[in-house]
From TrEMBL, chains A, B:
The keyword Ion transport applies. This is Potassium transporter. Keywords: Cell inner membrane, Cell membrane, Ion transport, Membrane, Potassium, Potassium transport, Transmembrane, Transmembrane helix, Transport. It holds the Pfam family TrkH. It is a multi-pass membrane protein. The keyword Acetylation does not apply. It is found in: Cell inner membrane. Belongs to the TrkH potassium transport family. Its main location: membrane. The chain crosses the membrane at residues 12-34, 40-60, 72-93, 135-155, 186-209, 239-262, 274-295, 338-357, 405-428, 474-495.
Length: 498, 498
């Protein structure tokens, strides 16, 4: 390793800002269209972002083309940070979220697709601002697809090599074109899904604007809504909620599966082990929740109205599937306050905060594939104790998994647990009680959104101290970039030249 | 592997019952001495236990001497269970704890050195019953020493091979005599420490009876007290509490270190890496707690009186060191309700519930050595990501640790986390709130004793449902026997003959 090629890092970051600024055209147009009198401020945000990007690119135009691992890490982490620092400008310049910590939190929550908010009244916000909020999710989701396709498998972070093996594209020998090609295919699916969901939501009775925003929030597993009550606003429209249930499921599924589906290759989907596990987890936990809600819980204890449009049982099924999917896919939409159902479901959902969706989706959390490998390895561990000399590898998708990958996944899990407990301790030091601190840390790290206690699905993060908001923002970034990508920059080995 | 030699398993269990029955002489004598009118019932417990043991031994006297791994696991887990089933007889026969679930819980809490209680008023109990309670701790502590010296390292459970390497005794080639020899040496230290602590406590002002009971509870890191307020009863006698602080520290230290100390080989102690880490953890966390208590917390918010005998600062130091040691060594004695100090300290202590003392001590939890290996491996993981082709082993005590051992320790940690979350979910299903369910599971699994919420240091476990009590008892056993030893019996591989 030689010294880090900072010029190419800055150059790439400049390109990202250009891209970010380009997306700001949408809120500018929205503000103009809805006559919101903040068009000038939004245009100014766009100009500042684009010019910052141009300046960074121009000042580093003479750069060495050499790009290696360390530059990659810097680009990913700093990239997210620079997106946030410019992406918060529309909030700050329009004075809709004037304080730094609030605007930073809301924007980080956007790009990391967490969906936690500090807004006490979402519905008073101008449409242009709400659209930008949803767009930060959608841009973040695009970033995650690149991260999963290109960065994590290449660098071997947390066992994501397992994902790379199944991504579609030209032969494995042509690595670079393959990655670009795969990313493009998956982006296309992401885009098509968003359009279809928006159309379906409109047909089901949502307004155009709400339909677009919720589609942007669903596919990115983000969770920002245009309503104070989130999707519970449509508790009298089961069809709307079933559409969101379907698209949350798709957003939590490996996009490569959708690629197979578009090619009518359903056999490949069914043969995919992670998909089967993901589906099973959803079905098992949703059915269990349905039974508990139907027999034990009173949905009306919620502060949210729960009209039984089709009947008691349908209501139990719908809210169970909705909230299980919202938590497992880490979307974080709310139709009902799951922390008020029963003590058992509260802790069960707390456990689900650590599950996560599939690798190759936009969901956060630990991810199904890692859990499956760890569970299988756990069973093997018992056999290994009984037969110390036998070689007993973990089998996944019909193949033996290299012990090194299992080792890396174990390391990832432990680092996740450690980040969670340190995250909770630091949050508690800002004065949060036990349940709130633990829930807030799990939710931020897993990019879920709602949490427990004073950060329940019907509350928001506005009551945190400034430091608390920044700390949660850090946890969101940490979880979103799969821990290592962020933490490695803080390690002395990273900066050592040799 | 052939079929399991059940006869030798039963024979050994019979010997354990004989041993258990022999210890019942102490409560019998105590009852007679204190004129407690339950001497007959206690004698009956002794007779039933001894005769059960004799019957089991006699009916299996013609047994094959062959003993292998699977018999070892059965003996350990069933051994603890049989000790509990006979050890609860004194409570049941004297009708002091008449219900099965309560008596089972209290006895399991005793032998697993957990120290959680279902007794609402400890001080109304006859001395003989209180002595038996403390003795169950002490017997359990002896069992743990054998487990650590003989079973865990041999079977390679959770990386305990690392412990075996440092145990004193004859050359490694003579394995069997070495194990017996090591166990005897460590038992002797355990016994001597108990006697010394009892004498010191008496000198410091405790009554004879209380001194003996607290010495039995300290060295086993058990935590049963003879007072409703636990050691807080002596909050006006700092000297008593400092003595207990010292012996909690010794009980949480590898007894092999004490063996070196008795041989005046202090260099070996200082060179021991786990000892240095254990000491550092205690000092860091206690100092931090001292500062927070002194500047932020109000000790008088406790329901327990906190006379400032020597002054405010001394009080902060004493309660900090006492509670940090009580939790880290998993003794669980109480001088102050740490869940009422500050939100930060509540979560910090929750984290400490997972730390544990040293390997080769009587403490529960995950243990310092495992954390150290995992933390070191975590740092190496960053270097491995940056240098994928370099071989970067974990170094412990100046030597490279076999990757297999690190792998096993990772597996142990993950299984511990899984047991904890399932433990909490099941506890919540009995109706416990978030904080209580999570705290109760962590405390039971780590054999700590007090927990959080409605199971705080000033509460007890009597409010749990019968199922809740049995579930906590299971978690105690699971944690005490280092997970694998218990769970392996439930695995189908265990019962497969081949
Ligand atoms: K989310
Ligand atoms: K204990």
């Amino acid at each position: 390793m030689s010294t880090i090629n900072f010029k190419i890092v800055l150059h790439t970051l400049g390109m990202l800002l250009l891209f970010n600024g380009a997306f700001m055209i949408f809120p500018v147009v929205a503000s103009y269209y809805y006559n919101e009198s903040i068009t000038l401020e939004l245009t100014f945000s766009l100009i500042v972002t684009v010019f910052s990007g141009l300046f960074m690119m121009f000042s580093t135009r003479k750069h060495d083309k050499n790009i290696a691992q360390r530059e990659g890490y810097l680009i990913v982490t700093l990239g997210w940070l620079f997106m946030v620092l410019t992406g918060m400008l529309p909030y700050v310049f329009t004075k809709m979220i004037p304080e730094f910590s609030n605007a930073f939190f809301e924007t980080m929550s956007g790009y990391t697709t967490t969906g936690a908010s500090i807004l006490n009244d979402i519905e008073v916000m101008p449409n242009s601002i709400l659209l930008w909020r949803s767009l930060t999710h959608w841009i973040g989701g695009m970033g995650i697809i690149v991260l999963t396709v290109a960065i994590l498998p290449l660098f071997g972070i947390g066992g994501m090599q397992l994902f790379n093996a199944e991504a579609p594209g030209p032969g494995a020998d042509k690595l670079k074109p393959r990655i670009a090609d795969t990313a493009k295919r998956l982006w296309l699916i992401y885009f098509i899904y968003t359009v279809i969901e928006a159309i379906l939501l409109k047909i089901a009775g949502m307004g155009y604007f709400d339909a677009v925003n919720h589609a942007l929030s669903t596919l990115s597993t983000g969770g920002f809504s245009t309503k104070n009550d989130s999707v519970a606003f449509w508790n009298d429209s089961p069809m709307i909620q079933y559409i969101i249930i379907l698209f949350m499921f798709l957003a939590g599924t490996n996009f490569v599966m959708s690629y197979f589906a578009f090619k009518f290759d359903f056999k490949k989907i069914w043969q995919n082990e992670e998909f089967r596990w993901f589906l099973s987890f959803i079905l098992v936990f949703s059915s269990l929740t349905t039974l508990v809600i139907f027999f034990k819980a009173d949905l009306d204890l919620n502060s949210i109205p729960h009209p039984r449009v089709i009947g008691e049982f349908e209501s139990s099924i719908r809210h169970s599937f909705f909230q299980v999917l919202a938590v497992v896919t880490t979307t974080g939409f709310v139709t009902s306050d799951f922390t008020l159902w029963t003590p058992f479901l509260t802790i069960l959902f707390f456990g689900l905060f650590f599950l996560g969706g599939s690798a190759g989706s936009t969901s956060g959390g630990i991810k199904v594939v890692r859990h499956v490998i760890l569970i299988k390895n756990g069973f093997q561990e018992f056999r290994r104790v009984l037969h110390p000399n036998a070689i007993l590898p973990v089998r996944y998708k019909g193949k033996s998994v290299d012990q090194k990958i299992v080792f890396t996944i174990q390391g990832f899990f432990i680092l996740y647990a450690l980040s969670f407990i340190i995250g909770a301790v630091v949050l508690a030091s800002t004065g949060l009680d036990f349940e709130t601190a633990i829930g807030g840390a799990a939710s931020s790290l897993g990019n879920v959104g709602p949490a427990f206690g004073k950060l329940s699905p019907v509350d928001n993060f506005s009551g945190l101290t400034n430091f608390g908001k920044l700390w949660c923002s850090f946890l969101m970034l940490l979880g979103r970039l799969e821990l290592f990508t962020v933490l490695i920059i803080f390690s002395p080995y990273f900066w050592r030249n040799r």
